[in-house]
Design a protein that fits this description.
By secondary structure, the protein is an alpha/beta fold. Helix content is 41%, strand content 22%. It has a single domain, classed as Fructose Permease. The chain is built from seven helices and nine strands. The strands form two sheets. A seven-stranded mixed sheet has the order 3-2-4-1-5-8-9, sandwiched between helices. Strand 6 and strand 7 (120-122) form a beta hairpin. Helix 4 (62-70) crosses helix 5 and helix 5 (86-94) runs parallel beside helix 6. The longest helix has 14 residues, at 153-166. 31% of the residues are buried.
Amino acid sequence: MPILLTRIDDRLIHGQVVVGWAQALKADHIVVIDDDIAENEMQKFLFRMATPSDIKLSILKIKEAAEIIKKRGFDEDYTILLLKSPESAYKLIKAGGKISEINIGGMHFGEGKIQIFDAVFVDEKDVEYMKLLNKEGIALEVRMVPTDPKKDAIKFIDEKIKKKEDK
């Protein structure tokens, strides 16, 4: 089975992912893709605790995940890929991980970030990487849960930036 969902969500594993997405998609494998977390035993332990026992969890570095994607190593599972940021997603693509669509979930407020959707705050760097992903042919859609309507992230960002420039 191909990868069911690739999601950018800075919380990674939490209720919305486990209850909302994993149950709705009948996922049996969650893959956290993050170089720092892959080397942090405490973080890995916490993510294992947050993952239901009937769902396999892998925590991989970006290059490692890209190699597995290239070799279709997730095809035996119903897999959800989770990344923290648009930058991480772009690095995954550039390392050879082929993905056609990315769901954007929660990206929390921080200094220099603007709100573009209810739970999505971005800074210039996030926008830059989203546009680079889009140039690679990857559709970026915003939905917090599967029952939400899809919203085109790039279209909305372009409209928001244009409105800001017009002021």
